[in-house]
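ok so for the tutorial part 2 we go from a plain amino acid sequence to predicted structure tokens. step 1 is just haveing the sequence, like this:
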Amino acid sequence: MSNSKHARWLLAELPGLLHEKVLNQESAQKLEAHYQPLAMQKGNNPIFIITGILGALLIGAGIISIFAYNWDNFGRGLRAFLSVAPLLIAQGFYAYAYFKKKDSVAWIESTSGFLMLMLASSIALISQTYNIAGSMEEFLWIWMLLSIPLMYLRNSTLVTMMFLAGISSWTFHVPESSSHIVRYWLLLGAAIPHLWMNISHPDRRIRANQLGWALGISLLFSIMRVPEWRVESGGIIAYAMVFGLLYLIGRKFYGKEEYPWQRPFQSIAIIGTYVMAMFFSFESIDFDLEWAEILGGKKYASWASWTNIGVFMSALAGMGGLLVYHLRKNNWLNYFIVGFPVLVISYLLLGSTDTLPPKIFMVLFNVFLLAFGAYYLREGIIKERLGLVNAGMFIMSSLFVMRFFDPDFSFLVKGIAFLLIGSAFFGVNIYLMKKKK
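step 2 — the prediction. this is what the tokens look like for a chain of 437 residues:
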């Protein structure tokens, strides 16, 4: 709710407070005089914001499609003019919103997104008009570089989300090499101040939620392309570490939010931890000791490889620092998420040296999932929250369902286990619904 809505609500409550003698006439008049100007301010209706953004995106896509359809029929001069005309028009709308509609989120977001699309259109059309050779990789790189100022000029969430999607897409169009991924860290670093400014701001919760989801999803896709972080090598630990780091950051900036969609970092961390643990509960992986060979001096590493390893180490150090911060503040933590990287590190180090057989770790990951689900089940029962109960039951029941396909267990054992789990599921839900009534 915006501040203007808060003010209008308070002014509407004043007559009742006067009637109930909670406030005297003098106090009510002072409150009215203080909040009346704020109540007169126009709020940003989400419907206007959404329709404005969709309209800008559709118009931009329509202009690009029309030009593409008739492009071969235009002369070079006309094509050169049409290449920059949409960009100039978009700049005109952007300038109008910048100077005349400073308080309108709908205008700011729609004109910023429209300008970013027209920028891409002009880059592509100019390249085609003058036969400038290039690839999708180069197009995305130039587009993302030129879009960086748009994130900051009017604090546009839409531009930032498009930027994060664009740099993630760029990583999949470049050759899989360490030096290219270093350029991704540079692009991501350009967005960090904007992300920090909005995610840490207490009055920008909707904006913070949107940016949190965009950043988390962008990271998950992009780190697939880091050669030193690949899943099939020792870098498997990177994903567990990223989930732990996202969770700890989320606890700092989204710790007071109620619903899962309002806690993007925690939700991504929980889902990611569950998926990884479920994968390792079924099969082991073949280890590639590339990291050990590099760190031990047996294998040459380029400056880019050392940079990627340095980014990983910095993130690991950040995770440790955040853990100390939360412990000192006595903040509640889900230690299953925080401790999962430790389990994966043990799996990595001991499994790669054949110190323990892979079956031992498969059992450990099964136990981890069972305890993980039981933890949420217990928390849900104590706090009387059906969402937590159902999350715990889902984790536990999905583990048993996966085990259904395990030939080591007989159908009788599987059947009894499913009956017990299903009965518990209904029993706990009925118990909590009765308590809530």
